[in-house]
Amino acid sequence: MEEFPEDIGAPVLGRAYPPLSSREIPSRLAVGTNTIWLIDNQGQIQTRCSPQELLVDSRVGSTERRVSFPDGTLFLTDRHNALEHLLADNSRSRLHHAEKVHPRLILVTLACLVGAWGIWKYGLAMLVSLAVWMTPPPLVAAIDAGTLHALDQVMTKPSALDEAEKAKVQDNFDRVLTALGPAAEEHNYSLKFRDMPGMGPNAFALPNGTIVVTDDLVRRVSTDALAGVIGHEIGHVAEQHGLTQIYRSLGAFVLIGMIAGDTGPMLEHVLLEGNLILSLSYSRQHELAADRFGVELATRAGFDPRGLSDFFELLEQEYGDQGNDWLSTHPKFKDRQDNLNALTRGH
Amino acid sequence: MQADPSQSTPTEFEFRGSTAEYFGIWIVNLLLSMATFGIYSAWAKVRTKKYFYQNTYVAGRSFDYHATGGQILIGRLIVIAGVIVVSIIANIPLANLILLPVLFLLIPYLLVRALRFQARVSSWSNVRFDFNGTWGGAMANYFLFPFIAALTLYTTWPFVTRSIQRFHVNGHTFGTTPMNFDSPVGPFYRAAFAALAWIIPVLVALMLFATNVDILGTLNSIADDPGNMADLINIFLIYAILLAALVPAGSIYHAMVRNTVYNYTVLGDGHRFHSDVSPLRLLWISASNLVVVIMTLGLALPWAHVRRVRYLADHTTFIPSGSLDEFVGTVRANVSAIGDAYGDIEGFDIGLAV
Q1: Could you give the ipTM of this predicted complex?
Q2: If you measure CA to CA, which chain A residue comes closest to B350?
Q3: Within chain A, how many helices (H) and strands (E) appear?
Q4: Which of residues 283 through 322 in chain A touch B, CB cutoff 8 A?
Q5: Minimal Cα–Cα distance from B343 to chain A, Å?
Q6: Which of A2, A315, B33, B327 is deepest in the core (most CB within 10 A)?
């Protein structure tokens, strides 16, 4: 039998488990210059290794410290100080010291509150811009082509407008687009005519720049209003609202899952549904932003800035404002008019 | 500290952690996670799991969690990349025709992987768990059986729950020792009736309230004040009542199912468990936790978590039938943490069911 030194200082008592076994053996750790021994109550050596081979887990709270031998033997001890003294190494409990209850934690807490607010306010927006910037353009083009194709299968009919009407709107569109200047090159802007029964006077934009106007819209609104609507849709594309919304809700989802971690059964509902309501609020903000963008663009192209506002008035008279503000993707027509009036007054 | 191995006296599960200690760990984790743009959150998860596992004792021996931050981070990066690609492609309508079936087949696979990962990085008394459930089993339990239950207007839902629990428990082994759960369906129906006993009165209250809403609504439209705010409050109240009907009923159902699962599970030759969680008490803990956490801007999360875990541990008992020194582990290859990371993002937690 080998010689192992008596403990210097307090003994590192604990319990050991042989490799792959649940058998519990009360033991202690002994350290020599080149060897570490695990010794049971009868003084028998259970296992040994060199100090470099010994794996000491990081300290977590006041849980028992895990010490693993290379053969798979596990040793557990709650004698943290004695262990660190014996191994002359306390580097594995640095994080533990930072976590201890101490006035310093108040600063950490404040930093977390500020950080959480900052991430919500700015960090998420930065991540989203980065993701939008990194999205490969062919993918965005595929979204446009795919969506239009699917709509043509189920919802739309070919436009019934005659060539003269189309040419007039196309000319309108080209003028508004020219007012956009060099930024017009950043997306693949194109105008499509479709008859969409039941959708009324309407238009929508796809993220790569495909802008669809309904026959109803072309027939029923003034040239100035049409320019405003086209400007509005160009605004959605130019400011990348579509991708931003996809990434924004995704980002919040991931952040909640990752950083907040396990929040308990009920809070999770509240957080995820709250996120949904918030994403609707972003959608409404985007509508207002696109309204302002559209009117400014149409004005620069030489159209009457009140066109879009008149269009909302028409819609309001015809359809009324229905539904609840908070649960809607679009703001009320009244709010949109107020938003635009504030803008045109500034001119 | 030491349990006499030959004795078979019941022994409580114990949680030995404290709120103050966990608060320190949690807040430092949070700060480091934010300072590293979320990268540290993988290590934070490991540290949190270790704290809870290592502080949970049965018969004087603790659990342990063995995943590493690196493993978790890689899993998360892969899953985030996947989620981004999927959510972009999902905007191409025709691509959905391919995407949805693929996801449909992928989800049971991820679930099984998550359970296996989770089991293999968990141990008690130096012996690791394992999970041998199959993709087919997950497919049947999570898609096929619920679909069939829907055809019976969910009157057979307790059978589905029992089957899912069998899939979970019977798929697990503790080292080389099998686990087995089987029970009559009666307790599952009792759990369902208890849940209904909560839902029905609350829904009746909701309907009474809804009639009032109409009156209020008309009153408001008379006043030329934009009825906005009142509408808003009403919609929130209806929503809150719906939540108050469904979420607590779910909590009651889960608590009763948990009791049944523990009470009918046998480990190896006859080690048994007992759980006597009170559904209403657990509901009270969850609901009051929610209120306190919101009022403290989330700072009370560690307190809420410890409170819940401690209650569950205090109401769980292990009834050994022989020596606890005889369990044998096996060496298992690592599984990737992809399923686990997917679980983190989707919010299903499949940790230690204590």
Answers
A1: 0.84
A2: A262
A3: 12, 11
A4: none
A5: 9
A6: B33
